[in-house]
Amino acid sequence: MFFINKKLAKNHLFKTKQKNRQKIMIWIILPSYNEEEALPILLEKIKETSKGFEDDYKVVVVDDGSSDNTQAILENFKKKIPLEIIRHTKNLGLGKALFNGIKKVVVEASNGDVVITLDADNTHPPTLFKEMITKLREENNQIVIASRYEKGGEEVGLSLFRKILSRSASIIIKAGFDVGNAKDCTCGFRAYDAGILKKGLEIYGDKLIEESSFVCMAELLVKLSHIGAKVSEVPLILRYDLKKGSSKMKYIYTIWRYFNLVIRKNKLLSFPKY
Question: What is the pLDDT of residues 60-71, one digit of tens each?
Answer without folding.
Answer: 999 999 999 999
